[in-house]
Every structure is written in structure tokens, then in C-alpha cells.
Design brief:
The protein is mostly beta strands. It has helices at residues 10-19, 286-289, 295-304, and strands at 28-31, 41-42, 48-49, 58-60, 63-65, 68-72, 75-80, 85-94, 106-111, 114-118, 129-134, 140-146, 156-166, 172-173, 193-195, 199-202, 207-211, 213-215, 221-225, 231-233, 239-243, 248-258, 261-271. The strands form six sheets. Strands 1, 3, 6, 8, 11 and 13 form a six-stranded antiparallel beta sheet that branches. It is elongated and about 85 Å long.
Length: 305
């Protein structure tokens, strides 16, 4: 004999239904400074938990913050939420370490490619702006900081008291998407082509060593007209050696020749007692590594080039 429980009365039936239903998960706040910040991309320094980008306690317009993330424009922090987030809250502004009026940044919150919130352009000494954004049904969250349109100098940006209200798990910091590596430099052709510096400097009385750089099919011979007294060229290796005794500027015409043709180029030799007679070439680490230059980073950059 089957018994209909609801015949026992409305209240017992309701209590039975509630007892058998799963409870909604209580949302819990997750502070962003507890997450892995190694995937934050920014144009200077590195993102820091509880501290500014310059390792000072977080402070905006004289108000200290015990929690948050110190970043620098231009920066991107990508978080995978998996539709388990409710809200994002924070206090944003330029850290006091740069001084009043310095820096200019704009903060943006983007969910699944849609702009959810953005600040005004903020500067040092201005009060923090509150952020309170719904994240329901959002899978991917981007926390962005730009330079306000005038470069990144002093753009020390703080996501103070930043947290995500999650119904389960934690936000998962994600690596930025990687572009496919493409070599755009065209392959050298068989004809001679002269490369390298067009200006070369040396001090009077110092040993002179300059190699004529060229691409093209080998064997190849090299020549130079109007070489100043004291210098000579090896036609097989393309090396110019010797010593100059007098200050001055000298215009030399270089040639490279193989069975495919001949290339010409002018080399200016500057002999003097000033520094940087050869225009500096290479790379500057400042906007890449800031104050965090290391032996390993310099070697890795050299290997990459």
C-alpha cells in the first residue's frame, strides 16, 4: 500500500522537501594577494602581494592598506573563475610612494571580453576609487591597468583590498596567451649585402679592429677606398686593423664582391677622445626588468638575440 506523504499535511510535506534539497553554497571571499602573482604581466617591475611595486606598504592618498596587490602600468592579471564567482571588490589608486601629482593610471575590470567597470584616470595623492562588480556567470576575469595615455612613468598602481567572492574553489591565475613565433627577417640572398655599423669610433693611438659584415654567397672578397694612413684591410676576412694617430673624421667606401655581384657602402671612421664615438647599439633593461636585473636575465636576453 502506497502512502502519499503530502496527505499528512502541507507542513510535513514542505519540511520533507526542504530536508531532501541541496543547500546553496555560501560564498566566501578570496583575497587576490593570496594567489600566485607570477602570471601578472606588467611593463615595469613585478606584481607584489601586500606591497607596492617598489616594496613599500600599500598606501593611497595617505590611507594604508594591509592587503592588496601592487602593480605597474601597463598590467594584465587574468583569472579563470569557472562561473563560480559572485562579486569583485577593491580600492584602486596610485600608490603614495610616487608623490602627489605623479603617475596617471586607469583601472579596468573585464569579464569574458566585456567591460564591466573602469575608473577615471587617477594620479598620485588622489583618493582611492571603490570597485564593486557582479561576476555572476563570468568565466574569465581580466584586471587591467593602462598608462592613462601619457607613458608609464611613476604609474605605480594598487589593487588594494582586492578580493573575489567565490561560491566554491579559488580563482585560478592563468598564463597570458602565447603568440606563435614567426621569423620576419628575410633570408639573405646570394648577392653581396653589406651590414653592420655605418659609424665606427676609436681613440688616437688605440688598436683599431673593425670587421666588414656582409651576407651573400662565398667566397667573397672585400675592399676599401680612402682608408686613412695607419689602417689596412684584409681582402679575405674583411678585417680592418692598425692604428690612427690623428683625430679626425674619415669617409671610407667599403666593397664586397662575389660571383653574383658587388655591394658598396660608406663607413665613417671617427677618431677622437670623447666617449660613444660609435653610436650605442643593443638593449636597455630598464623598462623590462626595472631594478630586478640579474646575471641570468642578461644572459637569457643575449641568448635570445
Amino acid at each position: 500500500m502506497k502512502t502519499n506523504l503530502c496527505k499528512l499535511g502541507v507542513m510535513p510535506c514542505l519540511l520533507w522537501a526542504l530536508a531532501g534539497s541541496p543547500r546553496a553554497a555560501a560564498a566566501e571571499p578570496v583575497a587576490l594577494d593570496t594567489l600566485d602573482l607570477s602570471h601578472v604581466e606588467q611593463d615595469w617591475g613585478k606584481a607584489r602581494a601586500h606591497l607596492s611595486v617598489d616594496r613599500h606598504p600599500l598606501s593611497i592618498a595617505g590611507h594604508p592598506f594591509a592587503h592588496g596587490i601592487g602593480t605597474h602600468a601597463v598590467s594584465t592579471f587574468r583569472l579563470e573563475l569557472g562561473r563560480r564567482a559572485e562579486r569583485f571588490t577593491a580600492q584602486v589608486g596610485v600608490d603614495d610612494e610616487v608623490g602627489p601629482g605623479h603617475g596617471s593610471v586607469r583601472f579596468r575590470v573585464v569579464g569574458d571580453g566585456k567591460l564591466l567597470w573602469q575608473s577615471a584616470v587617477l594620479r598620485g595623492g588622489e583618493a582611492a576609487q571603490p570597485v564593486d562588480v557582479s561576476l555572476r556567470h563570468v568565466r574569465t576575469l581580466l584586471l587591467l591597468v593602462d598608462d592613462g595615455g601619457d607613458g608609464i612613468s611613476y604609474d605605480h598602481a594598487d589593487w588594494a583590498d582586492a578580493q573575489v567572492l567565490m561560491t566554491s574553489d579559488k580563482p585560478l591565475p592563468a598564463e597570458p596567451p602565447h603568440e606563435r613565433l614567426v621569423v620576419l627577417t628575410p633570408k639573405p640572398g646570394p648577392k653581396p649585402r653589406l651590414n653592420g655599423a655605418s659609424v665606427f669610433g676609436v681613440r688616437p693611438g688605440a688598436p683599431f679592429l673593425f670587421t666588414v659584415a656582409a651576407t651573400g654567397e662565398r667566397p667573397m672578397t672585400f675592399g676599401a677606398t680612402s682608408l686613412p694612413t695607419g689602417l689596412e684591410l684584409d681582402p679575405t676576412t674583411g678585417r680592418i686593423t692598425g692604428m690612427l694617430g690623428q683625430k679626425g673624421d674619415y669617409e671610407v667606401t667599403l666593397t664586397a664582391r662575389n660571383r653574383r655581384g658587388t655591394a658598396h657602402r660608406t663607413l665613417k671612421i671617427v677618431c677622437g677622445d670623447q666617449i660613444a664615438l660609435t653610436p650605442p647599439m643593443g638593449w636597455n633593461s630598464w623598462n623590462c626588468f626595472g631594478c630586478d636585473v640579474s646575471d641570468a636575465k642578461v644572459r637569457a636576453a643575449a641568448d635570445a638575440m
